[in-house]
Fold this sequence. Notes:
Helix content: under 10%
Number of strands: 11
Strand content: over 45%
Shape: globular
Largest sheet: 7 strands, mixed
Order of helices and strands: EEEEEEEEEEE
Low-confidence stretches: none
Distance between the termini: 40 Å
Amino acid sequence: QVQLAESGGGLVQVGDSLRLSCVASGTVYSNDFMGWFRQEPGKEREFVAAINWRLAKTFYTESVKGRFTISRDAAKNTVYLQMNNLKLEDTGVYYCALSKSEYISYRSDSYDYWGQGTQVTVSS
Length: 124
């Protein structure tokens, strides 16, 4: 069993930066993927980024490439999402998730464990 706890959300302005953190309580195995999703009210949860735990290979949705960076600190069982040059459309609740699949997935139903979410609001 793994529990995930996000932190770092907040209210920022367009162009600002934020760093989200997610600490995993429990074992994250080398073939696991940890990812970030976001959701706005009335919309489906969408994939943002993911990282393979062992190789640290990263994956991003097109809209955040060049602005967001996912990374992990295996010693701390923590995954980060550095978000730069934030835009209005980045607003949402950001969820940390862990997938036990050894293959990358961009689908939320492929992830087995979820955090409670942290709100990110970008204002003009």
